[in-house]
Amino acid sequence: MGKQGAGKDNGEDDAHARRQSIIDGLLADALRPAFSYRAPSHEALPADIRRAIDRLLAKAETQRSRCLTYDDLEEALPPRDVSAEDLEAIFWILAEHGIEVEDGEA
To answer: What is the mean pLDDT of residues 4-22?
Structure first.
């Protein structure tokens, strides 16, 4: 019976160590300085993505709103397949201007 308990404790210790390792990694990511991520440069983006951003910024300004919808985003995007990096850049630049993209009415 003593060996079963010891094995269980060892397994619990291993599980605890794995969980702690994950938590430590998450904390390290959260504490990493914000400036370690370099914001995308508007000028470095493809021309059609820059135009999409400009349309979105203009729409937000015209509506005097800090919130756009996903429909607004879809209308502004170029007809080609847009990469995840392009979308990330769009959201990042909009956020720098204090503009969010949400479901529903703007």
So the answer is: 71
